[in-house]
Structure formats: structure tokens, C-alpha cells
Amino acid sequence: MLFDNDGVLVTPPADETQAAATRDAFREVGVDAVAQHHLDAIVTGVTVADLSEICTAYDLEAETFWKAREHHDARSQRQAFRAGDRNRYDDVDCLSTLSQNCGVVSNNHHSTLAFVLDRFDLEPLFETYYGREKTIESLRLKKPNPYYIERALSDLDGDSALYVGDSESDVIAADRAGIDSVFLRRPHCRNADLDVTPTYDVETLRDVVRIADGHSVDESRAR
What we know:
Belongs to the HAD-like hydrolase superfamily. Keywords: Hydrolase. GO terms for molecular function: phosphoglycolate phosphatase activity. It holds the Pfam family HAD_2. By secondary structure, the protein is of the alpha/beta class. It folds into two domains: 2-10 and 87-212, Rossmann fold; 15-82. It is built from nine helices and six strands, in the order βααααβαβααβαββα. Strands 3-2-1-4-5-6 form a six-stranded parallel sheet, with helices on both faces. The radius of gyration is 18 Å and the shape is globular. The chain starts with a strand and ends in an 11-residue tail after the last helix.
């Protein structure tokens, strides 16, 4: 079984925190005034093409800016966890009852994912984990690209699995990897209206455990 991290195992980062980290990155490379739509583009899932266009607008070298952005973003996330502004979900403990080998695949930085697993003593639950490297190229590999999901499946010697996520891109990535998906309706995505259909649609990780154990879950099949 494979799990997303932010919004599944731990609470997701706040948009305001990510925006502040992005402003800090711009300041580091000499830009004090940034258009709101550029901040929004970076926070909500910037592509390589978007990043190139944004950096051109401010006469910045993309590699230099992205290095600064990733540094400040990772720092802000660690600070949020240490301050208690972000935490793990209470139902994560139920994953210890799973008999299947498990892994984590996240669009967050690999180093941030390692920090989270260590801070909340989650490492024993998972055989493998992948986040993206702090490079521009990693933007091409993040979900919905199934690249990291496929790497994790290879580590687990599995060609069938469940991927548990909280976003439409998670469902698409699972489908592209040829595995079933679980859309987990945490509070931040409780009323999300998806344009894709997950294999299962549930509200807690306890539902996921029941699915993995082969038990029925009321209304867990996607609507």
C-alpha cells in the first residue's frame, strides 16, 4: 500500500505559509515586489514552463530562484511542525495493523518527508518513501506523473496496490501507474468535487485499513 503524506498522514501546509516562504525567496534574489498571480502560481503547483515565464518576468535565473524557494519552503515547513501548527492525524496509528508492506509517495521534498517520518516516529510503518528532489526537473516528475509511485512499487516488489491520497492528481497518478486509488476526504477536501473517479472514496484511514483487510466499508466505493 502507498500513501500520500501531506493531507493524509499529516496536516497540509497552509497557503499563507508557503506564500510567505516564496516572498522570502524572491527577496533573497533581489525582488521585493511580486505580483499576486505569480505567488499563487508557485504555491498552487508551478510547472517548469510557469517557472521559466515567472523568472523571465523578473529577469531572474530560474535555477538560482528555485534553489532559494526550495530552501525557504522546506525551512518554513519544519518551523510549522516544530511550532505545532502542523501535526499528524490521529488515525495514522491504525496503519500499524496493516499486514501489507507500505510506502509513502509525496510531491513534497524528499528531505521534508524524511523529517516528517522521523519527527512523528512513522518510519517503522513504511518500507520505502519518495519525495521529490529540490530541483526544477523534479517538477516534471511529481504527481500526476506516476514516476515516484512506480519507483515505490518496484521497491515493494508489487504490481498491484492501493494509493491513498487527498487530491485529484493522486487519483490520476494511481490510474497511470495501473493501481487502485483511495480518495481520503480529510476536512480540507471534504466537499471536493473530482473530475476523475477514484476506486474508493472514504473519510478515515480506518476505512482504508478495512479495505486492505478485504472488509466492506459503507459507501467506500466511489460515487
